[in-house]
C-alpha cells in the first residue's frame, strides 16, 4: 500500500508539473498559432530560415541537377525519353523548364519554389488537423512544424555538408498534392465535389512521380473507412458515387497525358516502353543484404525526425493521457496512410533515403 500510494503521489506531482510546463509553452506560443494568419507567416519564415542554407550551393545532389538540366533540354527542343532519359513522368521536367524560361540561372529559383511548396504542404497539414478538430490549435501547429523540420533537416543524418533534405526532389513537390488531396477528403468526405478535388490533386501529383499511387490507394481506403464509420451500408450508393468520382478524377491527368503522347506526338511507342515496361525493371540487383539496406534507409530518414519527436514527446504524452480529441476513424485513417506509404519505398529495391519522405505527412499527423 505504501509503495502504491507513493507512486500515485509521485505520478500526481509529475502530472501537475507537466501540465504547468505545457501551459507555459502554450502561452508562449499562442501568438504564433492563435490564428491561421499567424501560422501562415510563422511557417513561411521558418521554412525560409530552415532551407536558406542550401539556396546558393551549386550542387546538392544529382537528382536535382538532373531535373534542372532536363528542363533546359526541353527548352532547347530535345525530347524526354529520347534525347535524355528518366523513369519519371514529365511533370518535374515541365516545372524546371518553366523556371529555365523565366530565369537565366534556375538553381536558386528552383530551391525557392521548393521552399514555398514545403511551406504549403505544412500549412495544409495544419489546416487538415483543424478540420478534424478545430479546438486542437496547438497540435495542428506542431503538425506542420514537425513536417517542415523533418523534411528540411535530413542533412543532419549524413552530416551538414551533404545537405540531403535541402535539395528539391520529386518528393518535396508531389507531397504537396498528396496533402492537398487529403485535406479535401477530410474536409468534407461525403461531398462529391471534395472527392473530385481530392482525386484531381492526387492525379496532378502522379504526373510528378508514380509513387503517388500509394497515396491514392491509402486515401481511397480512408474515404471508404470514413464513410463506413458514418453510414455503414445504409448509404452505399453514395459511397459508390464518391469512389467512382475520386478514382476518375485521380486518373484524369494521367489519361490526358497518355492521350497527348498518342495523338500529339510521335513518341507513343517510346512512352509506352518507358512507362509500362521499363519501370518494372528499375529495381535491378541490390548489393548487400536488402533488409540491412532497408533498415539503414529508414534509420537515416527518422534520424532527425526522432530528435524532433523526442522534443515533442511531452506534448504527445499529455495528449494521449486524456481522452483523445481525435475521432477513431481519423486515427485509423492516418495510421493506414502511414503504413501504406512506408511500404511503398521498399518495393523498387533501391533504398534511397528521399523515397521515405513520403511517410512524413502521415507521420506528422
- Overall radius of gyration: 22 Å
Q: What's the pLDDT, averaged over the residues?
A: 75
**Strand content range:** under 5%
Query: Would you list the SSEs in sequence order as H and E?
Result: HHHHHHHHHHHHHHH
Find the count of extended strands (DSSP E, 2+ residues): 0
Distance between the termini: 41 Å
Provide the low-confidence segments as ranges: 6-11, 155-163, 285-289
From the helix content, strand content and strand pairing, which structural class follows?
A: mainly alpha
Judging from the principal axes of the Cα atoms, what is the shape?
A: globular
Count of helical stretches? 15
| Largest β sheet strand count, sense and barrel closure | none
Task: Please characterize this protein's 3D structure.
The chain has 365 residues and is an all-alpha fold. The protein has helices at residues 2-33, 36-51, 62-75, 91-102, 107-132, 137-152, 170-187, 192-206, 212-231, 236-264, 268-277, 290-311, 313-321, 328-343, 360-364. The chain is globular.
Keywords, separated by commas or semicolons:
71% helix; 365 residues; mainly alpha
What are the SSEs and their pairings?
Elements lengths: L1 H32 L2 H16 L10 H14 L15 H12 L4 H26 L4 H16 L17 H18 L4 H15 L5 H20 L4 H29 L3 H10 L12 H22 L1 H9 L6 H16 L16 H5 L1
Care to give the gist of this entry?
With 365 residues, this protein is mainly α. Helix content is 71%, strand content 0%.
Amino acid at each position: 500500500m505504501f509503495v502504491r500510494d507513493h507512486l500515485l503521489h509521485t505520478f500526481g506531482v509529475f502530472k501537475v508539473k507537466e501540465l504547468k510546463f505545457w501551459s507555459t509553452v502554450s502561452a508562449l506560443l499562442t501568438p504564433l498559432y492563435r490564428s491561421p494568419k499567424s501560422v501562415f507567416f510563422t511557417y513561411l519564415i521558418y521554412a525560409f530560415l530552415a532551407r536558406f542554407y542550401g539556396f546558393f550551393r551549386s550542387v546538392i545532389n544529382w537528382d536535382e541537377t538532373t531535373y534542372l538540366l532536363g528542363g533546359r533540354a526541353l527548352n532547347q527542343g530535345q525530347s524526354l525519353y529520347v534525347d535524355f532519359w528518366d523513369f519519371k513522368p514529365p511533370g518535374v521536367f515541365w516545372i524546371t523548364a518553366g523556371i529555365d524560361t523565366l530565369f537565366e540561372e534556375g538553381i536558386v529559383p528552383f530551391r525557392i519554389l521548393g521552399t514555398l511548396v514545403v511551406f504549403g504542404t505544412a500549412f495544409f497539414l495544419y489546416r487538415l488537423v483543424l478540420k478534424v478538430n478545430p479546438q486542437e490549435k496547438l497540435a495542428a501547429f506542431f503538425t506542420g512544424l514537425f513536417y517542415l523540420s523533418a523534411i528540411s533537416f535530413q542533412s543532419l543524418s549524413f552530416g551538414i555538408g551533404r545537405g540531403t533534405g535541402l535539395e528539391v526532389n520529386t518528393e518535396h513537390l508531389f507531397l504537396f498534392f498528396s496533402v492537398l488531396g487529403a485535406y479535401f477528403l477530410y474536409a468534407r468526405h461525403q461531398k462529391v465535389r471534395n472527392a473530385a478535388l481530392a482525386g484531381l490533386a492526387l492525379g496532378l501529383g502522379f504526373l510528378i512521380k508514380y509513387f503517388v499511387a500509394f497515396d491514392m490507394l491509402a486515401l481511397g481506403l480512408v474515404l471508404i473507412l470514413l464513410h463506413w464509420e458514418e453510414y455503414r451500408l445504409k448509404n452505399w450508393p453514395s459511397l459508390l458515387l464518391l469512389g467512382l468520382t475520386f478514382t476518375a478524377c485521380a486518373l484524369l491527368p494521367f489519361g490526358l497525358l497518355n492521350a497527348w503522347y498518342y495523338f500529339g506526338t510521335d513518341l507513343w511507342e517510346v512512352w509506352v516502353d518507358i512507362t509500362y515496361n521499363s519501370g518494372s525493371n528499375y529495381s535491378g540487383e541490390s548489393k548487400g543484404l536488402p533488409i540491412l539496406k532497408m533498415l539503414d534507409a529508414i534509420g537515416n530518414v527518422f534520424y532527425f525526425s526522432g530528435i524532433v519527436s523526442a522534443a515533442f514527446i511531452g506534448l504527445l504524452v499529455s495528449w494521449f493521457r486524456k481522452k483523445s480529441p481525435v475521432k477513431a476513424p481519423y486515427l485509423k485513417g492516418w495510421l493506414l496512410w502511414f503504413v501504406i506509404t512506408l511500404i511503398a519505398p521498399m518495393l523498387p529495391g533501391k533504398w534511397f533515403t528521399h523515397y521515405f519522405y513520403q511517410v512524413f505527412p502521415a507521420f506528422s499527423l
